[in-house]
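ping. complex inputs:
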Amino acid sequence: MVALREIVEQLGGELIGDGSLAIDCIEPLGEATAGAISFVSNARYRAQLAGSVAGCVIVAPSLRDEAAARGATIVTPDPYLYYARLTQWWAARMRPARTTGVHASAVVESSARIGRNVSIGALASIEADAVIEDGATIGAQCHIGRGARIGASTRLAARVTVHDRCTVGRRGIVHSGAVIGADGFGFAPDRGRWEKIEQLGAVVIGDDVEIGANTCIDRGALGNTVIADGVKLDNLIQIGHNVRIGEHTAIAGCVGIAGSAVIGRHCTIGGAGMIAGHLEIVDHVHISGGTLVSHSIRKPGHYTGVYPIAENAAWVKNAATLRHLHAMRERLRALEERLPEPPPPPDDPQRA
Amino acid sequence: MVALREIVEQLGGELIGDGSLAIDCIEPLGEATAGAISFVSNARYRAQLAGSVAGCVIVAPSLRDEAAARGATIVTPDPYLYYARLTQWWAARMRPARTTGVHASAVVESSARIGRNVSIGALASIEADAVIEDGATIGAQCHIGRGARIGASTRLAARVTVHDRCTVGRRGIVHSGAVIGADGFGFAPDRGRWEKIEQLGAVVIGDDVEIGANTCIDRGALGNTVIADGVKLDNLIQIGHNVRIGEHTAIAGCVGIAGSAVIGRHCTIGGAGMIAGHLEIVDHVHISGGTLVSHSIRKPGHYTGVYPIAENAAWVKNAATLRHLHAMRERLRALEERLPEPPPPPDDPQRA
Amino acid sequence: MVALREIVEQLGGELIGDGSLAIDCIEPLGEATAGAISFVSNARYRAQLAGSVAGCVIVAPSLRDEAAARGATIVTPDPYLYYARLTQWWAARMRPARTTGVHASAVVESSARIGRNVSIGALASIEADAVIEDGATIGAQCHIGRGARIGASTRLAARVTVHDRCTVGRRGIVHSGAVIGADGFGFAPDRGRWEKIEQLGAVVIGDDVEIGANTCIDRGALGNTVIADGVKLDNLIQIGHNVRIGEHTAIAGCVGIAGSAVIGRHCTIGGAGMIAGHLEIVDHVHISGGTLVSHSIRKPGHYTGVYPIAENAAWVKNAATLRHLHAMRERLRALEERLPEPPPPPDDPQRA
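pong. complex structure:
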C-alpha cells in the first residue's frame, strides 16, 4: 500500500487530486478496482475511462480534463512508459529483498572471481576462471562455464547455462533454461557422413540485454556470435552461430535465426518468424510473425509472408488451386492475347 | 507377466477366451507377438485383425465375432480408452516403486511446507514459503520458487522450474525443462530503447494438467496467466503473459501463443500453430498444424492456413506467381468486362 | 601457436611454402590476419583469395597455382572437410584437459555402473542401474534416469536429461537442456476429457549422434523412438513418440516431427520445418526450411512449401486475393469456354 503522492515523487508527472490516496495494486483499466492505479496508453481505451473506478489513472495531456473529471489523475507525456517505470518501482518495493553471498550448496571453483555484492544461489556450479562481476545474481542451479563472464548487476534466473568463455554484459536478465554458448550446428559432408566442425568462437552479449526462457544462442564457429546492447529476446528462440543482432532489436518467441545472419538495429521480429542463414537485414526492419525471411532485406519497412487462415474446407479448395497458380497465369495470358484490350475511343479526354 | 483375467478384473470389458492366458506386453496390432495384448481402435486396422498372433485383442462390439474367431478377445465400447487405462494400470504395476521423503542433497528452505507422502529428488531446490502438497513428487534438480504451490499428487519430472508465487493444481504432470513463471515479454519503447515492464502477476494452473518438456508459460504482467483444468500441453510450447486457456484444450508441440490471447475450452491446436496476441478463440475450435491465427475466431470449427508442399521447382514457379496474384485478379476482371457472359437463350428452362 | 608443418603432419595435404610459419588462429578468408590459417571451400570466395593476408590458405587442386602465388598453401581434395578436421585437432589441442572421476557433489546411486575414464560433473544426479560407459563425460547438473545408458566416449554438456531406460550410443554429443525420454503426447478422449496413455517405450539413440540444446526426444508409447547412427539434430527440435530417423539425416533448429513419423536416411530438414505424424519420408529427401510436410514423400528430391515474403502492403493485397483463388480458377475456366482457342491456320507447317 502506497500513497499516490509517493509515486509522483518518485516517477514525476503532474498529480491532479488527493496525494494521500492509498494505492494497493496496478491493474488494467477495464478491471481496475478502487485501490488500483491504472493507465490509458492508447486512445482505443479512452471509452473505458469515464466508467472506471480506478483510484488513479495515468493519462496523456490530451485526456487531462476527461480524466480529472473522473478522479485522481497523473498526467505525463507517455503513459505507457510511465506505467513501465511504475512496475519497476513497484517490483523493487514489493519483492523480497535479494540476499547476497554464495549459497553453501553452490560449487564454485577456487579460480573463479566473484565480485562484491554478488548472489549465487543454491546448487549453482561455477567453473574455473569464470568472472561474476559486482552485484550480479546467479540463480539456483545455474551453470557458468570456464572463463565465462557475467556483467555487473546482471541477473540470471534459476537453471541458466552460460558456457565456456561466453560473456553477458551489464544489467542483463537471463531467464530459466536459456543456453548460451552451445555448439553451433556445423558439419562438413564426407561420403554421406557428417564430420563435426568444432565451434571455436564464443557468444558476446552486450549490456541491458534480456534473454527469455529456454532460448538458445550458439557460439560462433571461428568468430563470435554477437548480441548488441539493448536487445530483447523472448522465450524459445534459436540463434545460430555467427549471428549478429544490432542494438535495441526485439524478437518475439519461437523465432529461429540461422547461422551467420546479420540483423540490424531497432528491428522487430514477430513470433515464429524464421530468418535464413547468411543474409543481412538492415536497421528498422519489422518482420511479421510467422514470416520466413529467405533473402536479405536492404530497405527498412514492414515485411510479411503468411498463408491466410480460413475455414478448413475453403483452405482445401484454395490450396489445391495454388498448385496450379503458374499454369493459371499462363492461361490468363493466353486469353489476353486472344482478346486484346480495345483501343481507347478517339475522343476520350482521359486517355488522350 | 499377468493373467488376462487380472486385466479384465481391473478394467472391465467382456472377456471371450481363456482368462489364464499370460500377457507379457502391450503391442500395436501390426507387430504384436503371442504374449501381447493389442487393440483395434479404428476400423482402418480391421484388416490386420485376422492375421494377428496377438494373445488377446481389445475390440469394439462391432468386431466381436470377427475377433473371437481369432482368439482371446476383450469387448468394450471404446477400445482406445480401454487401451489408455490399460497403459496406466500396466505402468503402475511395472514401474519401480516411488520413494518418498526429501533426498539428502535437496535444498529445502525451512519455511517451505512439505505435505505427507511427498517425494523430493536429489539436488532439488525449494525456496521459502513454497508449498508441496500431499503426495506430490518433485523430481531431481527441480527448482520451486518462493511461495509457489505444487498440488496434491502432482508429479514434476527432473529439472522443472516453477517460479515465485506460481501454482500447479492437483494430479498434474510437468516434464523436464519446463519453465513456469518466467517474465512475460513486455517493454515500453523509449526513444529507441526498451524499458522493461516488470511482470507482477503469476501463473495459475488447474488440476489434471500435463505440461511438456521445455515448454514455457510466462507469468502475467498485472494479472495471471491461467491454464484451466484438464489442459494438455506438449513439448516446446510458448505461452505468453496473460494468456488464458480453457478446460480440456490440447495443444501439440512447438505451438506459440502470444500475450493476452484467450483460448476456449475443448479446442485443439496442431503442432507449430501460432496464435497472435490479444485475440479470442471460442470453445471447440480446431486449428491445423502450422497455421497462424491472426484474428479472433468466433465460430467453432476447423481452421487452416498452410502453404501446400510441392517439389521445389514447382514451388518456385507458383510462389513467384503468387506475388502477382492481386494483379492477376485485376486482369481477370478486365477480361470479364471485355467478354461479358452471354445472356441465357430465351427458352432455357434451367435458367428461367 | 603451432607451426604450419605440424598441421600437415597431422592432417595431410600438400604443403606449399614455409612449414615453420607460425599459425595462431583459424579465421574466415575475408577477415583472416597474418597469423591465421584459412580456407576456400567454394569458388564464390575465390575472389577474396588474392587479396587475403592469411598466413596459409587451404585450397582445392584447381586453385593451387593461384593460391601458391599468394603465399603458404595446403592443397587437398576437399578443403571444407580439411577445415572440419583442423577444427577438431585445434580444439583437442587448445581446450583445457578433461578431468576424469566423479565430482564430490554429484549424486550417484550405488547400483549405477560407471566405466573407466569417465567424467561426472558437479551436481549431476545418476539414478539406480544407469550405465555410464568408458570415457563418457556427464556434464554438471545432468540427470541420468534409472537404467539409462550413456555410450562410450559420449559427451553430455551441462544440464542434459536422459530419462529412465533410454540409451545414447557411442561418441555422441548432447547439448545443454536437451530432454531425452519425456513422455510422448498421447491421450484418449473420454467425454470431453483426455485420459493419459502412459508411455511405456523408451528412446534409442545410435552412435555418432549429436543433439542440440533444449531439443526434446519423447519416449515411445509402446515401442521405442529411434534415432539412427550419425544423425545430427540442431537446437530446439521436437521429436514425438515412435518417430524413427534414419542414418546420417541432419535436421536444423526449431523443427517439429510429430508422432510415428518415419524419416529416411541422408535426409535434410531445414529450420522450422514441420513433419506431420504417421507419415513416411524416403531416403535422400531434402525439405526446405519453414515447410510443413503433411503427407508421405515417396520420391527423393527437394520439397518446399513456404509463403513468399513481401512488403506488407503487397502481402495484404495478395493474401486477400488468395482467399478467392479457387473462384478465380472457375472464372478463368468460364472465360476460356466463352473464348475457345482458335484452330491453327490450315497451312501452318509447325502444327501440321
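The radius of gyration of chain A is 27 Å.
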